Queue: 2 jobs
Job 1
Amino acid sequence: MTTERERRFPGPRRGQLLFALAFLALSLLLLMLLPWQTTWLAKSQLVAQPRFWPAVGLGLMTACGALYLARLPWRRFTRFDTAEAKRWAAVAEYAGWFMAYVLLVPLLGYLPVTLVFVLSLARRLGYRRRGVYIAGAIFALAVVVIFKGFLSVRIPGAAVYEYLPTALRAFFIQYL
Amino acid sequence: MDLLLSAIEILMRWDVALALLVGSVGGVLIGAIPGVGPAVAIAILLPATFSMDPIVGLTVLLGIYGSSMYGGAIPAILINTPGTAVNALSTYDGYPMTARGEPQRALSLAYSASFYGGMFSVLCLILFAPVLARVAPLFGSREIFLAALLGMVLVVTAHRGQSLIAAALAALGIFIQTIGFEPVKYTQRYTFDQPFMQGGINLIVVVLGLFALSQAFVLLTSEDETYRPTRLRGGLLQGFRELARHPRVATVSAFFGVLMGIIPGVGEFNSQFLSYTYAQRTSKRPEDFGHGSSEGLIASETSNNAVPAAAMVPLLALGIPGEQLTAMMLSVFYVHNVVPGPGLFQNSMDFVVALYIALAVLNVLVILFLLVATKPLIQVVRIPNRFLGICVLTLSFVGVYSLRNSVTDCVMAALFGLFGYVLKRLDLPSVPIILGMVLGNIMEVKLRAGMARVKEPWDFIDRPISFILFVSILLIIAFHIRRVVLERRDLKQAEAGTRTRPNRFGGLLARRRESLLRVRGRMVRARHK
């Protein structure tokens, strides 16, 4: 039966214990590394020490993280926590997609990679309607034209553009 | 008058006009799409604005910030799904109006209330600017440190029921901003001797990870929903007439919005809560609230739209952002070497007034756009969630990669994206991390500068403003502790009321013993009969 303390907890139960434990473990680990990762300088005020603010941050993280863990109304892992952890891990796939996009743009070019990225991710998500692919292609083209063409954001030209004829190369590097 | 004219002169450029138009229309569109929100849009556009003039870049971002709440009211009223988080209260009274067949009345009332809130706050701040210009120079290093600390304390205490984890996440923000080369003594902090860590972790990378990438992950893993927006019939001007019948509610709500916007770390939610409660308590028909009350809708929409202009006050006057959107804008100032703070009010007052006028023009543009384009605009809620996720992921690349063309930044952003996703799944706040990073940096610099001129600790608060700020911090902490103690007492009383038999092992053994003794007693009595 749900206790009053559980009922008043803001947020879902699943994953809370796992998060609180991981947060506290990370805070403790970083706090233990403080003497090796920061420097204490002689003849310097406490607040001017390079170690002062990391110590404040990590000290508060550990203290508040420990109190948060202690105040959690749950002490045991359930199958819902495991399912939640799996869900967190599953999202890493999309982080992988993002990193693949990042690594391929400097090699193959912004426009071609964006087009392939949008359309293949749409396929991965299960879209099969032609309208979605057309919308995706228009979106990819618009993003490249607006950001690289008009706003001139800093995205370097691709390595493959070096093999293009001179006249085309400059255009591709600057706009696509 | 000269000040006003020179401010108008700053704005009389085609690129500023274009920025106003793009910001206002873009903000309404972004606000109208549930699941995107201004934080995601601003995070993505931030690096793109670095190549623009400060006034142009800030106008685009301010446009998105100020107009997204207008757009957010559309899905809140029509499909009971707030477009931005701050429109959640509008669903209480907006959607019941739609359900009883008055969607155009609810929309026009929301637009007119938003317009009133936006214009009221801009007017207040233009009138208030000379006072600010006089007060801002009184803020030295100590006062700015204490104001930043006050902002941090308010951010933590504003997360009711979650203040412990909010404090822990704010502390994480403080820690993250210390990573890299320490700028004064040139020592390394938590770099693990890795060259890519020496430059530290960029605020924009963290912002993009926590807001844009995490939102993309949420959208990509969600289900597509089918919405059928209600058809609108009739004009959208009637709201102004209805608003004119409730001037008290609208003005008090706008005032709450301005007040809460100025205080760092408080923001839209508290102003809405106060306005809604005030409107309900003073209404002749309080029972209508939550069932399609026009006063309720006016209170929520007026107060949330009064916040953006007011939130610029601590940012411009002291260089202290009160919430995540102004924290992002702070980086635009820094990129252009425009340092917000007392100096800005003393030296570039026309720039400050120009920003406020831009906000006023923006409100006019947005209301005109909405009066004309609401009917086609409703269709944006039909964009499938997962397709939106693809769009946000693609646009996030522009934001992160164009910053420094660094793959390391992208890895960091992806990791913060995963962390932000976990926070969203657990309903934990990510705003304290951003404010911890920004305010932590301000506190580090200002405390060092302030303490250099202080002989005894008490000298730190010997000036009137620093003393007032210090006392405010103590009072807020004392009130928060009191509230926590009262909540704990209330919880204990509630637990005592619903207490059941003990389920500890000792309790179970005692119950078993009692039961066995009862059975044994029955057997003994039966034998002796």
Job 2
Amino acid sequence: MSSAPSNLVIAPILIPLLAGALMLFFNERERRLKTVLSVLSILTQMVISLSLLRTVHLDGQTPALVYLVGNWPAPIAINLVVDRLAAVMLMLTGALALPAILYAMERWDKVGPHFHSLFQFLLVGLNGAFLTGDLFNLFVFFEVMLAASYGLVLHGGGLQRVRSGMHYIAVNLVTSLIFLIGIAMVFGATGSLNLAEIALRAEWLEGFSRVALHVGLAMLGLAFLIKAGMWPLCFWLVPAYAAAAGPVAAVFAMLSKVGIYALLRLALLLPGTGAAFGSRVIFIGGAVTLAFASIGLLASQSMKRASAYFILISSGTLLAAFGISTPGGTAGALFYLLSSTLAVSAFFMLVELLEREQDAASGVLAVTQEAFGDSDEVDEEELEVGRVMPSALAVLGIGFTLLAMVLIGLPPLSGFLAKLSILTAVLGPGAGDLATLEGRRAILVVLLLVSGLVALIAMARMGIRTFWAPVEPFTPRVTVMEATPILMLLAMLIALSVLAGPVINLLQFTAADLHDPGRYLNAVLGAERVPPYAGREH
Amino acid sequence: MELVIAAAIGILTTSGVWLILRSRTYQLIIGLALLSYAVNLFIFSMGRLRVNAPPVLDGSAPVDVAAYTDPIPQALVLTAIVISFATTALFLVVLIVSRGLTGSDHVDGREG
């Protein structure tokens, strides 16, 4: 195979890094240039992730593309690995980032410095975390992502953001330390940081080393579960996400999925036997999270809080479905991940458009806009760019209804298909070998259906209160540029529903790869160096 | 030496955990700093404790691996120190902003 595709593997990290760094050289007034750079960078990343996905999916020979950083031989080099799961997650990141940045163009990138740079660095962290095949690098990319997210969660300022942002930062700093302890213990037990090599060595460990490895993995799992928002580690999430600016919250929908991704990857890879590590804990945690988030959703008065609870519902469902630990369940859960992340992201932006008229936060926005100077310029530009959307309430109402259908899981949209495929994996033909997990299956089925009902009640109440019987009638002033990203995400959701066949097919291959770690190990440990140096070994 | 290191890590962790459970932001940040010291020492000790063993290979003589200490934890500690240093600095700024906005150094921004 030619070396070109494997060099592309590092591009999703380099492109946003360069774009973000380049933007630091320009003054905040060069907003249009920064926006163009941002959009170009995200588009390039999407094209590259698509080509990586095509290469990995269509080429049956190589389940994973491996890039050896510095061209060191396989287990020594820090490696970047693209398998189907990583490629799908890269695509999803791009699909969320593009609408978020377009949405921010209209208003949010003006209320604080360096929005676009921080956004690009967040993408560096996200893409890096999905690509890396090395435990310590996973930590480094987590930190890059978190450092950027600290800036973004405070973007726009204001009391609410600073207060919940401080809790967010404190919790994540402690999480990072737990993550480091886990890495140190795994390294102490196996003497390696390369995921594939750790998986190989884990099988041969005995006595105290084995215990140390398991404790280390449990610490890592704890760190990932805090990120994913498993109950009782999730109390920081709702205030922070509800206070964050719309486009920031929209892309933060992906942040909790990084925790889920890392958990899935490590749980299935590291024991080296294909049986998920700690699947019972993950299942119970997921189930309780789902129950907790459903109650929270019913109790939440503001729509922003409700959308944050949808993140928890999504995390809970994913954890519970992964806890069943069968390829079919994993494939269904991955489809649910795509569908729910896109929907929650769109919902965050939609809710902001609806609530900002009635909300006290819009007052804060006006003040910060003034604090950053040149309010006249902003007004001029808004006149220039901001064409007001005709019949905005109707468009938002239809968008709300469609998103509600996805989030609740009503047919015919992707939310229904996702839940259906999880239920099929649990109940349908071929589930017979799950007899030992009778209890878990029953709990999962009940919780999935009940959480759907709860979401239906909550969404119906919100819809009636906002569109049919508002306390004070209002017409949201929405510009075309603000509505477009939401429509883009809706189009993606509809495409996901229409193309569900091929997508589920892809995800079934993905799940099969995950449940057969041998393929990943072979690809990573058998990776060959680029020619000029490879010959010198002999 | 093992006992001293283990005790040091234990005391730092205990103090750190106690401090981050306190209600003042200054105690929180000192607690985080102590915890990160403890974690750094812990990473260091995971490479096994050796005295008088260099981490960098000496290319002039034939290499006897047993004469060297494991260099990887040292590199990891360096990275971890830099990262925790940067995030602590950032957190300090947020604490000061919070103090300015709320007029209180309580972690919830209000007393009680």
